[in-house]
């Protein structure tokens, strides 16, 4: 990839992130609980329609944490932010934010949704332990990509947490080190 193509990609990705406007969280500090619940339910329905394993996972999961929109951007140093709803028994039980930072060779911006299926009580208990749940620390988290999600069956799934990323928009390229933290919030 030439410098000119990379510059164009960065410009395009930045424009996509800026065009989406400031997130509700940035405008109001936090999203209203009802609005966040509705967005999370719609995102989960969209995920189940595109990846049938999500519906099977939800039926077996103790709880599902859905982040309907996470915004990620970076140029050398990057960050991400999103708010989501934890569903237990199909009802909103709590609200969380995900934040992350990264650094390395990276450029661009993107938005995506993210769902975590908690398969047992121990994994769910880790979510509220300490001062936030750090992805990659604690119970095993298995990322299920779009291709795998279409061919996986729940009889082969044996881990603590399954995570699916969906609805990706934008362009983010690079190599870097990334950390991600999930923390409970109290929406307005």
Give the CA-based shape: globular
Can you tell me the number of structural domains?
Answer: 1
- Give the CA-CA distance, first to last residue: 45 Å
| Cα radius of gyration in angstroms | 17 Å
Query: What summary fits the major beta sheet?
Result: 5 strands, mixed
What integer is the average pLDDT?
A: 75
Helix and strand sequence? HHHHEEHEEHE
Label the structural class.
alpha+beta
Number of helices: 6
- pLDDT below 50 for ≥5 consecutive residues: which ranges? 1-29, 136-140, 146-156
Provide a brief overview of the structure.
The protein has 188 residues and is α+β, with helices and mostly antiparallel strands. It has 6 helices and 5 strands; from the N terminus they run ααααββαββαβ.
Helices and strands in order, then pairings?
Elements: H1 3-19, H2 24-28, H3 33-50, H4 52-60, E1 63-88, E2 91-118, H5 121-127, E3 133-134, E4 141-144, H6 146-151, E5 161-185
Parallel strand pairs: 4-5
Antiparallel strand pairs: 1-2, 2-5, 3-5
Helix pairs in contact: 3-4
Explained architecture:
The chain is an alpha+beta fold and 188 residues long. It has one domain. It is 33% helix and 45% strand. The protein has 6 helices and 5 strands. Helix 3 packs across helix 4 (52-60). The longest helix has 18 residues, at 33-50. 34% of the residues are buried. Residues 1-29, 136-140 and 146-156 have low confidence and may be disordered.
């Amino acid at each position: 990839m030439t410098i000119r193509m990379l510059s164009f990609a960065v410009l395009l990705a930045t424009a996509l992130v800026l065009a989406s406007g400031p997130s509700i969280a940035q405008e109001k500090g936090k999203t209203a609980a009802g609005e966040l619940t509705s967005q999370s339910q719609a995102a989960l329905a969209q995920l189940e329609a595109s990846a049938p394993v999500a519906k099977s996972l939800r039926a077996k999961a103790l709880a599902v944490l859905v982040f309907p929109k996470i915004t990620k951007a970076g140029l050398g140093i990057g960050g991400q932010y999103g708010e989501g709803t934890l569903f237990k028994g199909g009802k909103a039980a709590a609200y969380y934010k995900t934040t992350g930072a990264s650094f390395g060779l990276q450029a661009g911006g993107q938005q995506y949704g993210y769902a975590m299926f908690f398969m047992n009580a121990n994994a769910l208990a880790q979510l509220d332990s300490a001062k936030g749940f750090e992805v990659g620390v604690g119970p095993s988290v298995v990322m299920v990509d779009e291709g795998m999600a279409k061919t996986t069956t729940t009889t082969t799934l044996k881990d603590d947490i399954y995570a699916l990323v969906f609805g990706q928009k934008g362009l983010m390229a690079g190599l870097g080190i990334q950390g991600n933290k999930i923390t409970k919030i109290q929406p307005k």
